[in-house]
């Protein structure tokens, strides 16, 4: 790696933003769109932050909605909704403005990755 690239990496624009507060446990996934950054964690939740300021916005998890195990992958759809996959074998399609999701079942074991294309087609990979 050249000195110029190393210098940009350590002193780039991201340092102008405050540090994003961490989850209580390990972070396994992140998704970014023009407005938000979402991080999925071993604490079973997803935290959403403003992409421009780094300010915490909300947590996607409650007693009624969300993952029962670690969140292993998440991705934004073009319409701003978020889809997440977890070790519980569930896919959660989250609403944009409230802490509510549609739970999509189909996998029998942990989900390792979710991807979304520009046409809102979602693909998930699992250990089953």
- Overall average pLDDT: 86
Report the radius of gyration as a whole number of Å: 16 Å
- Tell me the helix content: under 10%
* Secondary structure: number of strands: 10
In what range is the share of β-strand residues? 35-45%
Strand order in space, largest sheet: 1-2-3-4
**Overall spatial form:** globular
Number of H- or I-type helical stretches: 1
The major sheet is characterized as: 4 strands, antiparallel
By secondary-structure content and strand pairing, the structural class works out as mainly beta
Return the string of H and E elements. Answer: HEEEEEEEEEE
Gap from first CA to last CA:
39 Å
Low-confidence stretches at least 5 residues in length (pLDDT < 50)? 1-9
What does this structure look like?
By secondary structure, this protein is mainly beta. Helix content is 7%, strand content 41%. It is built from 1 helix and 10 strands. Strand 1 and strand 2 form a beta hairpin. The N and C termini lie far apart (39 Å). The N terminus is likely disordered.
């Amino acid at each position: 790696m050249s000195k110029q690239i190393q210098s940009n990496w350590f002193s780039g624009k991201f340092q102008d933003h405050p540090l994003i507060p961490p989850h209580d446990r390990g972070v396994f996934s992140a998704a970014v769109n023009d407005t938000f950054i979402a991080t999925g964690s071993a604490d079973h939740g997803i935290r959403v932050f403003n992409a421009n300021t780094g300010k915490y916005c909300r947590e996607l998890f409650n007693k009624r909605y969300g993952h029962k195990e670690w969140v292993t992958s998440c991705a934004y759809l073009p319409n701003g909704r978020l889809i997440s996959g977890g070790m519980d074998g569930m896919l959660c399609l989250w609403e944009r403005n409230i802490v509510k999701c549609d739970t999509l079942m189909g996998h029998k074991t942990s989900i390792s990755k979710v991807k979304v294309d520009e046409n809102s087609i979602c693909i998930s990979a699992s250990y089953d």
